[in-house]
Amino acid sequence: MKLKRVLQLYTALLLAFLYAPLAFIVVQSFNAAKYPGAWRGFTLEWYFELARDSEILQAAANGLAVAVLSATLSTVLGGVAAYYFSKRGSSGAADSFFYAPIVIPEIVESVSLLMLYYSAGVELGFWTVLVGHTAYNVSYAYVALKPQFKVTSRSVEDAAYTLGARPFDVFVRVYFPMALPGIVASLLITFAMSFDDFVKTAFTTGPGFKTLPLVIWARAARGRATTELNALASLMILVSLAASYVYSRQVLLAKKERFTGGS
């Protein structure tokens, strides 16, 4: 009983450590003071100010465009590779190849990409950022999807072929539904990593293309970290929690259908 209380206290402290800074940001987003600190009263002004900030809105649109495309491309490319190598059996060399970008420091990859772009004479901007993010995120998609393809029983595939299914039909009607949780996880992870990326974006973008992390850093570095940024962070937290909840619900429903046979 004593151990149980210790574990409960530990869990409560851990959650407080994780979420207290986020809660502080959310509370401060309603503070009438221009800069975070002493409470000056409740207001929604910073959310209206955020909606009028053209630089923030443009940076958000840029980041969303890169993140959506990068997540889609990474999941497709990583998924095809994961499917291929999961069917080949032993693929230690391939796994090492895909795991390497995850453990290599991001600053090293970013500098390498920048040198490559300069050597090729490529103009930095949207496309160079997209290529940089996708090249990095493919590895995460591969890691998320390979176990999903690998757990599918070979007998299920053989049964589908015996019933006259073509390879494309087997992939779409057998492997794809079973890999759907991994696909959703891959999309969410790679989207979040791309939208939130600062280092790789800073090294691969040009002067006319900015994303939210770059704008936020520039303002904070110049002493312009106003309460408006707290409002922006609060909205991002809300979207993240909503996405996490939807994904968790989908996973639970998928598990329930699997155990109940879809009834």
Automatic annotation (TrEMBL):
It is a multi-pass membrane protein. One of its GO terms (biological process) is transmembrane transport. Keywords: Cell membrane, Membrane, Transmembrane, Transmembrane helix, Transport. InterPro entries: Bact_Polyamine_Transport, MetI-like, MetI-like_sf. It comes from the Archaea. It is found in: Cell membrane. One of its GO terms (cellular component) is plasma membrane. Residues 60-247 form the ABC transmembrane type-1 domain. The chain crosses the membrane at residues 56-85, 97-118, 124-145, 174-195, 229-248. Belongs to the binding-protein-dependent transport system permease family. CysTW subfamily. This is Binding-protein-dependent transport systems inner membrane component. The lineage of its organism: Archaea, Thermoproteota, Thermoprotei, Thermofilales, Thermofilaceae.
